[in-house]
User: Which sequence fits this backbone?
């Protein structure tokens, strides 16, 4: 390169070119090679086809074959036939699909099934049975906390979390905070809050 050519190369152009070269190399490198570089303890490459995933749902281990893009909500409803969690908005806004993941409430439509491996999943079905209802489920019956029913499973799970967290000292304000991410088109919020507080006192 002549002296005049060198003058035409700026520091910005030099670093920009080096960055593009490195980026293109990373993109073109096969996934298998990247997986080997990560080593046995590194991230696992999954997909594009179905993969095996073992989930602990309501105390029982379930081994499924799911595509990596399958959400926890889809896995619960279709292969496992746990239809309590509802696919209402499917974008993490309504709370109808709320479940407990390691004891914390999450929107199951925003969690991949493969992300739930090795973690405990509890759905509204896992809180109680028709013969032995959870205190929150019974309180929803006693205080008319359910109307159309679409939001009810998520509301029940959110309230169960609040009861477990605060115990008998649960206040209506704390119950309102726990269910802030759960929408009810029927507007039955007052009954839901009364049910949560009543369930806490029963506990």
Assistant:
């Amino acid at each position: 390169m002549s002296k005049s050519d060198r003058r035409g190369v700026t520091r910005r152009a030099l670093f920009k070119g080096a960055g593009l070269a490195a980026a293109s190399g990373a993109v073109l490198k096969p996934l298998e090679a990247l997986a080997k570089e990560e080593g046995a303890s590194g991230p696992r490459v999954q997909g594009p086809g179905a993969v095996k995933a073992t989930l602990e749902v309501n105390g029982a281990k379930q081994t499924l074959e799911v595509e990596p893009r399958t959400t926890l909500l889809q896995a619960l409803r279709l292969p496992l036939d746990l239809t309590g969690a509802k696919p209402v908005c499917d974008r993490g806004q309504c709370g109808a699909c709320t479940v407990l993941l390691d004891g914390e409430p999450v929107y199951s439509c925003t969690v991949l099934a493969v992300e739930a491996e090795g973690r405990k999943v509890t759905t509204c079905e896992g809180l109680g049975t028709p013969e032995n209802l959870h205190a929150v489920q019974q309180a929803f019956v006693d205080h008319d906390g359910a109307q159309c029913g679409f939001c009810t499973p998520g509301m029940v799970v959110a309230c169960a979390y609040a009861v477990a967290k605060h115990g008998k000292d649960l206040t209506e304000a704390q119950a309102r905070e726990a269910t802030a991410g759960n929408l009810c088109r029927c507007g039955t919020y007052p009954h839901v809050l009364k049910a949560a507080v009543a369930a806490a006192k029963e506990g």
